[in-house]
Predict the structure.
Amino acid sequence: MDQDQADKQAYFEQVYRDMFKRLNTRKNFVIHAIEGEKATIAENEEICGQKEPKYIECANQKELDQFITRENQTERDITNNLESNEMPMR
């Protein structure tokens, strides 16, 4: 890897890690890998005592931003439902 590619990789890693800090959810997400502009996020789910990682791939910054926005909105919706006095729809 030449210096220019190394600089781009370092740039993307820093940008993606800064974006990832905005993720505010009870789910357990970690950055699994950053390869160029592509980021792979792992969600560590535990099903019946077995850890089952689920991988989400984001091809660029826009997809990662959309993923973070979507997960944060889902978390806000859940929190609002739990804090309201209305019964959730079934």
Observations:
- The mean pLDDT is 87.
- The chain has two helices and three strands.
- The radius of gyration is 16 Å.
